[in-house]
Amino acid sequence: MASTSLVRFDRVTVRFDNNVALANLTWDLREGDTCVILGAAGSGKTVLLKTALGLIHPDEGSVALFGQDTRGVAESAMRELRARIGILFQEGGLFDSLTVEDNVGYPLENQKSLLCPPDQVRPRVEEALRFVELGHTLEKFPSELSGGMRRRVGIARAIVTQPKLLLYDSPTAGLDPITANNIMTLVAKERDIRGTTTALATHRFQDGHLLANYRYNASKGKLEPGETGTRFLVLNDGQIAFEGSQDELEASRDAYVSKFAKPLKD
Amino acid sequence: MLDFLKGPLLNLQIFVGLTLRALANIFRAPHYWNDISLQMDLIGVGSVPLVLLTGLFTGAVITLQMSRALNQYGAASQVGQIVSITLVRELGPVLTAILVAGRNSSGMASELGSMKVTEQIDAMRALGTDPVQKLVTPRLIATAVMLPLLVIVSDFMGLVGGYIVGCVVLNLTTGTQFWTTAYRALDYSDVAQGLLKPFVFAMVLSLVGCHYGMNASGGTQGVGRATTQAVVVSCVWIIVLTYFIGTFFIDLN
């Protein structure tokens, strides 16, 4: 049986003043998919994820979330759709004025459609923080955490509602290789333990390579080589320059596309 | 040909949209009472020392500068009346609003601007909150409640300043006469004008601060630009509006 479409872009164009951020883009993310969105800075990765979430409205074309066309949908109704999606923003997007506990508990307390009883907030926050191995940081403020820890808190906040779909916007940007690898392990762990549909925007092919070739083994508590069926999308100036598997990406002769597969080839 | 108007008109459209949403949210749940009281403390209580000091010296300066002219006409005993009318109708509301604009409109623009450029506003929307309801409406309510109260404090301190200079330092008149003329000079329309103005200014300075903050772009430089614009635009509007509100009350009489 074919899986259902969670996000569908139909000829979507997004403009900012006279700049085209997404140009006539058609994209489909289905339940259970892992999609790695590669692209240089300014290629439209963040805009794509924010448009998928309904934070940016397309100038042309349509976006369907969980099968529902979002054109003309009121912001209040969009909030209910967004409650089923988790997102990690590029810099974490944590609220400076709130503690880690309040940050992670924020969606549980504010997304009314989740109907989370107040006495369940703290246990769920603790569980999400344990998942990202930051169970001891409840009372800290984001400014007291390192860059990698802030991303992990961001992941905890994204997964605390146990969404069906998770969007990661450059989760490893600006991090050292070891921390970046830890973050990517968490992304794979969430995907493989909960079976969450995952879209990850990054400029690092290594991130995509890890998601495509490793699965998280919960009993051993580590990543193991394994097939994941990950698809790659390469964006260039708001257009899809490539869509396909890792093998097809590595075989591409396109000058722009091949740049993203090169780091591991060399 | 009229392309140069596009930017300002678009800005005005966004500002009007934000204003309408912020006002509509006053009557719509959820209400973030903690944020409202926090902002009241920040804007109201936090501005009290500043308002006490500037109010006191404003009254003192008015008395000092008017003393020569009043002596010339043999009307030094009327100094209380002049200080009272000038402060309650005009200088109290305007100077207090400009001070609060400098202190809080800039604060709102920089705080919200920083939240905008670090994607906290997007995160708020993504996590089920209306940023206007959570950030703008509490600031609007808090400023609209606190600024008129601050103006009352400022007016009173101005009269005290006027009394000190007029009665103690320059001996222009007696204390009883100062306070009696100050009190008798005011009628209900003066008090109404003196309280309506800060209410309107409060809406302007809070909404302008929030507007520039919510629409900041371009990293830290953009936040700095938004902060400057918020203060400049708030102050200009305060001065323009005080004229029109004053005209309205003069026509009413």
Structural class of chain A: alpha/beta
The shape of chain A is: globular
Number of strands of chain B: 0
Cα-atom radius of gyration of chain A: 18 Å
Helix content of chain A: 25-40%
Percentage of residues assigned to helices of chain B: over 70%
How much strand of chain A?
25-35%
End-to-end CA span of chain B: 45 Å
Shape of chain B: elongated
Low-confidence stretches of chain B: none
Mean pLDDT metric of chain A: 89
Number of domains of chain B: 1
Question: What does the model show?
Answer:
The complex is a heterodimer of chains A (266) and B (253). With 266 residues, chain A is α/β, with parallel strands linked by helices. Chain A contains 9 helices and 12 strands. Chain A has helices at 45-52, 75-82, 100-110, 118-131, 147-159, 177-194, 205-213, 246-251, 255-265; strands at 5-16, 19-30, 34-39, 60-65, 68-69, 85-88, 165-169, 197-202, 214-217, 222-225, 231-236, 239-244. The longest helix of chain A is centred in the last third of the chain and has 18 residues, at 177-194. Chain B has 253 residues and is mostly helical. Chain B contains 9 helices and no strands. In chain B, α3 runs antiparallel to α4 and α4 (79-117) runs antiparallel to α9. The mean pLDDT of chain B is 92. The chains are: A alpha/beta (266), B mainly alpha (253). Chain A binds chain B through residues 50, 53, 55, 75, 79, 82-83, 85, 87, 89-91, 93-96, 106-107, 110-113, 157, and chain B through 114-115, 118-120, 122-130.
